[in-house]
Amino acid sequence: MMKSYEIVIIGGGPAGLAAALEAKESGVDSILILERDRELGGILNQCIHNGFGLHTFKEELTGPEYAYRFIEKVLEEKIEYKLNTMVMDITQSKIVTYMNKTEGLVHIQAESIILAMGCRERPRGALNIPGFRPAGIFSAGTAQRLVNMEGYMPGREVVILGSGDIGLIMARRLTLEGAHVKVVAEIMPYSGGLKRNIVQCLDDFGIPLRLSHTIVDIRGVDRVEGVTIAQVDEHMKPIPGTEEDYDCDTILLSVGLIPENELSNKINVQMNAVTSGPVVNESLETNIEGVFACGNVLHVHDLVDYVSEEAALAGKNAAKYVLGKFDGQEAPAHTVTLEAVDGVRYTVPKTVNIGRMADTVKVRFRVGNVFKDSYVSVYYDDERVLHRKKMIMAPGEMEDITLDRKRLQEYPDLKKITVKIERE
Amino acid sequence: MYDVVIIGAGVTGCCIARELSRYQLNACVVEKGDDVASGTSKANSGVIHSGFDAKPGSLMAKLNVEGNALLWKLAEELDFPVKKNGALVVATDEEEIKHLELLLDQARQNGVPGVRILTREEVMKMEPNLTDKTVAALYAPTGGVIDPFNLAIAMGENANVNGMEFRFETEVLQIHKKGEKYALETNHGTIETKCVVNAAGVYADKFHNMVSEEKIHITARKGEYLLFDKTVGDLFTASVFPVPGKMGKGILIAPTVHGNLYVGPTANDVEDKESINTTQDILQLLTEKAKANHLSKKVIPMNKVITSFAGLRAHQDKHDFIVQEVPDAECFFDAAGIESPGLTSSPAIGAMMAKMVSEKLNLKKKEKFVSTRKGVLKPEKLTDEERNQLIKKNPAYGNIICRCEMVTEGEIVDAIHRPLGAKSMDSIKRRTRAGMGRCQAGFCTPRTMEVLSRELGIGMTEITKKGGGSQLVVGKTKEL
């Protein structure tokens, strides 16, 4: 007999933990969290810097502290979880196959699945960085794990490519550990990280950030011996004559994160080409009924607080799904599509069923460029219903708007909600 | 003193070592890298050529066709992955059809089985993603793909099991003839031997020229590649070549035996025989090829590139293999100029060299030669039930270390403890594929390091990417 669970959550990081707690809170007892690493908490365990939880707990926590707030509750609630356990396969009929050392390969039946696998870092190859392939080239997250969890130094003289948050955090971390971070090069004309990280991790330590620069050569046969960086033009092509050499033994790459959707693809979850995450509706449900997604597997977040908030919603909706309360709402289905245009790269969710949405639904998005003194505008079909001024918006920081059910119900013929950036 | 010392543990040296290990002798392979297949053998197309490309009457043509026939059988005996996916040479205008006819004629002269020219309709049916410019194609059904590392690893392991000694991180610096024997000065002392087999790849000319007045010259001809994620690996079934040019077979688009896709190689002669770096201009060129209508009508998405790499062909001026006893240096044998189709030809080169050396030294065959070998056990090939039994017996097979390629701890431990076991991250990668997937070892690096450290009883700071000075971490935190 195959063992069954009402909700199986794939991933025991911040998303999986928050989803599990909310599902439990909503009245589901049969929950299983499957985690491939050796402890719950996901990538937070290696994020030992502070700055987590300002929104959720109104205090500044480190990553492991933030994670523990959730882990503690999962333990209290006696939610079942398995560590060192890899999900090998899922099917559209929601059979989950996992594997670990003690049980071997196991098939279980889920009524609902919550995808919470997180994301991975883009490797060097994705950027086509030329040069040798010596030791000493790490993605920033790998270096972070080595330093913060294993206690080893990846190198002493460091150049960082990419100004994603992990790269910025590691610039400071390695400096504090006595390494010399020579420069952070960023191919875009703006940073991909949070403003506060640029100030606290680079500016405060006198580490230069070179915007519109990239690595054009890596030297060293055994171990990295140096890099050449060059300025790029508006098409991101290196400009000859702008090359600068840096001697270093280590290169960290912080050049973007990709949601890890290998499992989602196995069951043909519909994907959004912009986020590389599933397309979801207002309930964070994918095109496969009863399969929900949240956290960085859905779209890469800037703050973990938002991951927790989003994941709680996925947990709540998965609970509704298994408890049969999803379709019990009085209003008939009325689904509208959200369209992201004019500087807005995407929205999560992508569709909203006004009939079954909660009183309010938060729509998160990112912009594709730096916008100063501009407006976030929302249109219901052709009518502008929101026009909110923002002093600054940047690709590194998530934005959101809130949809109100009562207000939407005033538009019975509504087809499309458009989110855009307007200069005035 | 050895009977035979083979210089170089690339695929050529390993095949020679394996064939020589059939005989009763005292022999050794010296290799400057920390593993087999750490030079040209680790960075090439992994194509099993059928043999239509080589000039009729050349040694290259003969050994290519022989090697192709040998490989399929060897893959079973020595348990390494191969796939007979066929090769296509695509003509995109009428002029190029003439080239196809030329190749067809060569194929007949070289004795390549089954080669024929397909019409546009026939070939488009076979490969619907071929460029719309396709007018015809040469089809060679005996073309295939192979895991290039695992051929060398399998041959090396099997040779080792049959008594062949391997000395890694041992670089030959000078060779002296001393009476009836050769003295090889290395970074680890002098090695004496009756016979030398020079299988030194791009450096084969250097060693040959130390003992012979009839100089040879080998140019390092660099080839760069883009390797794509398995999600685009089904673009073509066959290995798809353009019509060949002066510098070689051109930039192909082909699946690997593991289901990835690659675009490459380019061909540029370089001075520095260590310059296995990729270059900006060439990567740009390959990017254009992937995007534009080169062989494929589909654009190959650049966000699916997982890595780029370069390898060096050992191009001999006369563009043929040299497999010989050097005329003016008795008991010094060359396997030189082994460029494409060198990988395919290597089993035949091994057999040919073993015959020459054994006749020279009057060697007798061993009574108990072990002719088979099992590769690293791949749990994914087992049924669920078999897999569960395996995990029960050895729980390490239940622990995934590399999540992209789904490689278990059990496989990594196997790779470390088998003959010529892995000692570095790259040698584990080549044996198990751990770190070869889409995250390019981002997640598994610290975990593989841990397994290496535990199994070899060495500290984390001693673990290297590929031997030598390629340590991954420089020390503990708080030590700086």
TrEMBL record, chain B:
Instruction: Provide the FAD dependent oxidoreductase domain boundaries.
Output: 3-356
Gene3D superfamilies noted in UniProt: BFD-like [2Fe-2S]-binding domain, D-Amino Acid Oxidase, subunit A, domain 2, FAD/NAD(P)-binding domain
Q: Which residues cross the membrane?
A: none
The UniProt entry, under InterPro entries, shows: BFD-like_2Fe2S-bd_dom, BFD-like_2Fe2S-bd_dom_sf, FAD-dep_OxRdtase, FAD/NAD-bd_sf, G3P_Oxidase/Oxidoreductase
Q: Name one Pfam family in it.
A: Fer2_BFD
Q: Where does the source fall among the domains of life?
A: Bacteria
SUPFAM superfamilies, sorted: FAD/NAD(P)-binding domain
Q: Which residue numbers delimit the BFD-like [2Fe-2S]-binding domain?
A: 400-453
Q: Which PANTHER family match?
A: GLYCEROL 3-PHOSPHATE OXIDASE, GLYCEROL-3-PHOSPHATE DEHYDROGENASE
* Protein name according to UniProt: NAD(P)/FAD-dependent oxidoreductase
This protein's species is Caproiciproducens faecalis
In the record, what lineage is assigned to the organism producing the protein? Bacteria, Bacillati, Bacillota, Clostridia, Eubacteriales
